[in-house]
Amino acid sequence: MSNVLFVNVIPIPLTSDGKVTMGFTPHMPLSILYLSSSIKKFSNPSSVNLVDFAIHTSKVNNYDLIDDFIRDIINDSVEITPDIVVFSLIFSTAHDFFERSSAIIREIWPNSLIVAGGGHASDAVVMEEILNENLADYVFRGEGEKSFSNFIDNYNNNCLKDNILGVYSKKDINLLSKLNNNCYTVSDYIEDLDELPFPDWDLIDMRLYLEEGGSRRKEFVKGGDEIYMASMFTSRGCPFKCTFCSSHTIHGRKMRYRSNENVTKEMMVLYTKYGVTEFLPEDDLFTVHKPRILSLLSSIRNLNIPNMSMQFPNALSVNTLDEEVLDALFDTGMDVATLAVESGSEYVQKNIIKKRCNLDRAKKLVSYIRSKGHFVRCYFIVGFPRETKNMMNETMKFASTLQADWSAMFTAVPLVGSEMYKEFDKDGVITDRKKIWREFYMERNFDTKEVTAKWLNNFVQDSNYRINFFNNPNLNDGNFTKALGLFDEVVSRHDSHIVGHYCKMVCYKALGYSEDYDKTLLKVKNLIANDENAAAIYEKFKSEFKLLN
Asked: Which of 83, 89, 222, 271 is most buried by a 10 A CB count?
């Protein structure tokens, strides 16, 4: 029989001395939860356990050595020696921590098999590196619920040599290399998603995830009400071919849907058992099929969950939305509409990122959403291969005229498995793969022939200040209470954000909150006097700080 141990890694990069680089709020590890429930349904493991490093991220910097942290968490979490240790590597930023924890697990349990899967591990180059560096004994490419269940059955029957589609060992890749055949397959896609059991929420400390990771204050929407929210999927796959996306490496291009009954049943379990009232579908393309989505939303409304709300962290596709779909979403509790625009340049849309977002439609949708009194946020990315400075300026000009409540701006980060990654690699700018893997969307760490990393990072930051703060449409339109909620949300997370504090000052002055104005003025002056970064921002944008001049 087999004792299975899942490992939920810390998905953020580490510094050279083993410290975490930023704060992190853990999110439910849905991939692990689906794998856990699936192997319990489709195979026969002796035990299934979890070491959840992610929920202990805040403790890392209390240790002089990251290895000591890893050992302590393992010792506190694991009672049964595992036969199979499973890493789910969704993002490349987890690679640093994966390397360290894999090595320590080898020391503690030298006879245990280590397997890895997820978007990062599914990339062919990454898979080869993981196996050749002995970080794992097997890598699972693509969807793993069925293939891992088959793997456990084989393990229990002492026949691991049996081939399973999409599963590779070091021996396999060496053999294929000798045959000059590196066309690796992925696991079979699960056609009937209703066959999958619901995520194994009992595997994690659900209450902790709800209270620490899954709860939040939505100051700008609900006046600070605390809510419990949970992520879920209602479909898999995406037929679009955006060059910056790598989700197809796991779920493929073909759309597959869960039934309305299956989705709503899961939502009711989350509500009745855990008190979840906000649901976050993380589908790659939630609104792709209009009749299906209108029917699903109607079924969700019929659940009559009190104060239910929905948000879409992966953003909604502009090309699949219209007023009817938006109204249905609003009626089902969506109070924040997040739109994936990505670029304001028609050329970039058609010829570089291949998203082909209809920019005219985006303008109409934003206008409609705001006219209905709802909050709208748009995503933008700059720094794609072959994207010039003029094209990037087009995007920021479009963002400023779009008049969304908020424009989230990112640098183009090459995700392994994406066409964009291959383009950057072909251009010769990816000279250190692991350095690229440490990147987040907020900062570029390599130069291209079009722009330097320093220029791009400054461009994104400056555009953020100008569009979201100094010229925020709510500020310009006199919606000071709404604007105040936005800025307060920022400074609650970044206390030294001088632009955010200053824009709060503007709101306080307009609203006649003299005491709050005076306190914030003092805060801004103290930042200028004592914080070098804040002082530099003030000098750079001095003309915008009109209340201080």
From this structure: 89
